[in-house]
Amino acid sequence: MAEKTVVYWGTGRRKEAVARVRIMPGTGKFLVNGKPALEYFGRQQLVDAALAPFRVTDTQGQFDVLANCDGGGISGQSGAVRLGVARALLKAGDYRPELKKAGFLTRDARAVERKKYGLKKARKRPQFSKR
């Protein structure tokens, strides 16, 4: 019979990226789509951004993180994992004041603006010719 381990989960979104994050008491292992986080993201800065909620709540190394990311790019996925981790920490303990103060519970609503007809991009106009 499998042993009972407590698993806390949270879903994070950023731009087009979606991350389904599970945290469980452990040693601080961080896997994204089955790979170590640094190998998946390729930059330590993105890994640090994703793990920021643990630093704010002083829980570094106390939880193992399993994240499943889909859509968007690596920067958006890192932001999505950060929100997912923060939401999972809410269920794991009483960390709401610290996470709220750091702004980790707010979904970043910024996204790419749509292209408008008659323009080259969202706001860039075609070159004006007087003659």
Can you offer a commentary on this structure?
The chain has 131 residues and is an alpha+beta fold. 33% of the residues lie in helices and 22% in strands. A five-stranded mixed sheet has the order 1-2-5-3-4. A hairpin with a 2-residue loop joins β3 (30-32) and β4. α2 (44-50) runs parallel beside α4. This is Small ribosomal subunit protein uS9. Belongs to the universal ribosomal protein uS9 family.
Task: Spell out the key features of this protein.
alpha+beta, 5 helices, 131 residues, 22% strand, five-stranded mixed beta sheet
Strand line-up of the largest beta sheet: 1-2-5-3-4
Compute the average pLDDT.
94
The secondary structure category is alpha+beta
Could you name the ranges where pLDDT drops below 50 across 5 or more consecutive residues? none
- The total beta strand count reads 5
The general outline is elongated
Strand content: 15-25%
The CA-CA distance between the termini, in Å, is 82 Å
Q: Give the proportion of residues in helices.
A: 25-40%
Total number of helical segments? 5
Largest sheet: 5 strands, mixed
Q: List the helices and strands in order.
A: EEEEHHHEHH
